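Entry:
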Amino acid sequence: MNTATAAVDTLLYLNGVTVSFDGFKALNELSLIVEEGELRTIIGPNGAGKTTMMDVVTGKTRPDAGEVFFRGTADLSRLDEAAIANLGIGRKFQRPTVFENLTVLENLELSLDDSRGTLRTLFAQLSPDCRDRIDNTLARIGLTARAWSTPAGVLPLFPRSAN
């Protein structure tokens, strides 16, 4: 883990990641560093390895070689998809995924990173931190006034996929 030690201050660290499918190298020694607070866009033609890279980061695909670390300590190449999701790593697909009959607020509450146990879910109350996080998100996407009364399914496409 020598190279990972250098990655302690990075959010996401990929080094020499290779993935092959039946002899075809979808990723060939890919290296990428994403620092805390940085926004990166991965672009390229079909077949360039964008989806494969995301599959490696989220645990869907195991690399044949290379290192994948989150915050310098979590070796993503050794964790399953659920463990990686519990670290807060997930994917947002282009298709909006909301509970259309629930309000905007209820959808945001469900999206919080929190315990999903039965008792916790039945008797959950938002902490002040969670409430602030939701309020900030509502303000950022311009839906504060509609949060309590508007079912997410009646919103136009952009606001539904803004979070």
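The mean pLDDT is 84.
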